[in-house]
Amino acid sequence: MKKIIMLGAPGAGKGTQAKQIAERYHIPHISTGDIFRANLKNGTELGKKAKEYMDQGLLVPDDLTCDIVMDRIRQEDCKDGFVLDGFPRTIPQAEALTEALDKINQKMDVAIDVAVPDESIVERMSGRRACLTCGATYHIVSIPTKAEGICDKCGNAVVLRDDDKPETVQKRLSVYHEQTQPLIDYYKKQNILQTVDGTQPMEEVFKAVTEILEQ
Ligand code: ADP
Ligand code: ADP
Ligand code: ZN
Q1: Pick the CATH number of 3-117+169-213 from 3.40.50.300, 3.40.390.10, 3.30.420.40, 3.40.605.10
Q2: Model pTM?
Q3: Where do the domains of the chain lie?
Q4: What confidence score (pLDDT) does residue 1 get?
Q5: Cα 149 to Cα 157: distance, rounded to the nearest angstrom
């Protein structure tokens, strides 16, 4: 089972798990959030457009988002599988993905919902520190950097993302409930939904994820 979707609220730990899955199974980690942030950093048109939405805690429009993902999954390194993190986030995105794969006689193997209640999400996001250079993510309490404020992997600064500030977090959570949570039913109907308890320590969550992937 190597075509994987990570579902879950913002801050649930999708990215943290997706990175480990990618490493363990040697498949690409495709994060739409990372792709938008890389574009923003490089000052591309896409980056500028995406930022308008991201800063408000809103979703980037489906047409912009879908094109990027479809191009990415058609690349050679995705032929043995990939892990999608932060995509799909709306029913139209999920339908576009199903259709694109259908055309090449493929389908997603599993959608893993990393379940974390809203109460814990605010704490997760306010404590998240991200390296905007290499994309590594930490948490000031649960997953701290070795040296304060410095990325373990590349030595650059780690920061609180603009959209992880409390005012934006609430908005992102309500957007999640309205637009993304319906995907849980969508993948339940496709018979590929699995759920893990995302409130456990990172290593325990990963153990539950690998059990699903290797069953
Ligand atoms: P998190 O990991 O906290 O859920 P992401 O890095 O996945 O955050 O996404 C950050 C922002 O990028 C989102 O709030 C949204 O504005 C935009 N974004 C990322 N993925 C998508 C997507 N699939 N559709 C629309 N917008 C997206
Ligand atoms: P997402 O990609 O779903 O938005 P992240 O993987 O970026 O979420 O995780 C959100 C924050 O929570 C980060 O600061 C991360 O270091 C931390 N985190 C991730 N998994 C766990 C866990 N199992 N327990 C505690 N903190 C976690
Ligand atoms: Zn780094």
Answers
A1: 3.40.50.300
A2: 0.96
A3: 3-117+169-213
A4: 62
A5: 6
